[in-house]
């Protein structure tokens, strides 16, 4: 905090209120979600592989994410392959099991589905939210690297995907559509791209930019598509309501999946990718926060009351002490023949800073020190430089209750004149000689 110990002791209440306010402020700030994003403008084999998890037939090659084999050197060629590439870190998509705060996300990527003029297009490509990295066995062909004949439709898959399908099955509207898939390759919502003039897998390869937006409050998913250099369309091509909390795990991974079949084959590539996801800070337990607030207020009130009581008591005691000392000093000044008052620095120097080696004795009213005063104006010596040995009695404030006895002793010493008695020559507040 940058507060010194002295300031902390003098101002304990201010220090506590400052800390308490800071805690409340941080707690409030923690409720606001932040956005985490990463942009990949092209992909590099030597630097970007650590950011992704790959399955057997996926890779980074030619500056792109290659989801299925892109050359004949791959084992068994191009046919009947499936693959996934997932970002290596999961995202938390809602706060808690009972909380309705769902994370929003925006993603945009550039896709290229290439095929030789002699190839039949197939099978498809998908943007994926999944619980892990592994691609199911036998997920080639119509299963798009998402499910297989055994797992398709199982709620335990815990996945949601936006598919770009290039091969018609009996449950598909055509071989050129977008679909929203939940735990299955049978889309909940589909939209044919023929009406918009797009062909996912054309003979002449083309780069398409895709925007997928999910609003965590309205639970609406929107999908847009355009040529890479074009702006995003004003209206989405696919729009559907979906509560991600009902279908995916709280911590899920984002990535892509694709497959080839036989005879349908193609290269399924991602050239660019940007993803922005709301990141929720840890939400504090409100019950414990309320308890903390109550305890903090109670402690603050007690400290205030204690401080007031202590302060008032201290002021009263100090005032009594000053009154007592004033009475003592007043009595001293009224003694007839009191020569003078000495400066504290002269007495400190005379007694070597009241060093233990200068102690002559200890009495009921304080400690007596031997002192040597130089150039004392009250001295009877006429030399230019005079030194006078004196006895300095330091009155103890702790013994203020015995002031009457002390003053009686002092009065007697002041009046007596004897060669074996020291003469009273002066005083300093709190120090008597």
From TrEMBL:
Organism: Ficus carica
Residue ranges of domain Protein kinase in the record: 354-433
GO molecular function per UniProt: ATP binding; carbohydrate binding; protein serine/threonine kinase activity
Protein name: non-specific serine/threonine protein kinase
Membrane topology field: Single-pass type I membrane protein
Similarity remark: In the N-terminal section; belongs to the leguminous lectin family. In the C-terminal section; belongs to the protein kinase superfamily. Ser/Thr protein kinase family.
Predominant localisation class: membrane
Domain of life: Eukaryota
């Amino acid at each position: 905090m940058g507060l010194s110990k002295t300031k902390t002791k003098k101002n304990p209440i201010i220090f506590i209120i400052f800390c308490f306010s800071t805690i409340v402020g941080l707690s409030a700030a923690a409720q606001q979600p932040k956005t985490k994003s990463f942009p990949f403008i092209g992909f590099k084999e030597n630097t970007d592989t650590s950011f992704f998890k790959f399955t057997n037939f996926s890779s980074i090659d030619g500056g792109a994410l290659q989801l299925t084999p892109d050359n004949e050197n791959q084992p068994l060629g191009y046919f009947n392959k499936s693959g996934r590439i997932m970002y290596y870190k999961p995202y938390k998509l809602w706060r808690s099991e009972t909380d309705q705060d769902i994370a929003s996300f925006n993603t945009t990527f550039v896709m290229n589905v290439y095929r030789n003029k002699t190839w039949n297009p197939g099978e498809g490509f998908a943007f994926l939210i999944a619980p892990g990295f592994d691609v199911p066995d036998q997920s080639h062909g119509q299963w798009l690297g998402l499910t297989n004949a055994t797992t398709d439709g199982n709620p335990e898959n815990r996945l949601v995907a936006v598919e770009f399908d290039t091969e018609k099955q009996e449950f598909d509207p055509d071989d050129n559509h977008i679909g929203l898939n939940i735990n299955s390759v049978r889309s909940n919502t589909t939209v044919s791209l023929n009406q918009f003039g797009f062909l996912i897998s054309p003979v002449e390869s083309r780069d398409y930019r895709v925007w997928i937006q999910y609003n965590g409050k309205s639970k609406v998913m929107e999908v847009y598509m355009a040529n890479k250099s074009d702006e995003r369309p004003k209206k989405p091509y696919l729009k559907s309501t979906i509560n991600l909390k009902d279908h995916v795990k709280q911590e899920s991974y984002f990535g892509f999946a694709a497959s080839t079949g036989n005879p349908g084959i193609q290269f399924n590539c991602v050239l660019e990718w940007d993803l922005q996801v709301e990141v929720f800070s840890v939400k504090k337990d409100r019950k414990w926060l309320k308890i903390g607030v109550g305890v903090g207020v109670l402690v603050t009130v007690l400290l205030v009351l204690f401080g007031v009581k202590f302060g008032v008591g201290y002021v009263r005691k100090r005032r009594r002490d000053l009154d007592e000392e004033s009475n003592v000093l007043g009595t001293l000044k009224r003694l007839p023949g009191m020569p003078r008052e000495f400066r504290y620095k002269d007495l400190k120097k005379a007694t070597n800073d009241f060093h233990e080696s200068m102690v002559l004795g200890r009495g009921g009213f304080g400690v007596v020190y031997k002192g040597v005063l130089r150039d004392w104006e009250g001295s009877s010596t006429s030399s230019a430089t005079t030194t006078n040995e004196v006895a300095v009695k330091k009155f103890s404030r702790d013994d203020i209750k015995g002031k009457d006895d002390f003053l009686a002793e002092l009065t007697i010493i002041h009046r007596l004149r004897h060669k074996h008695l020291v003469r009273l020559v002066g005083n300093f507040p709190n120090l008597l000689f």
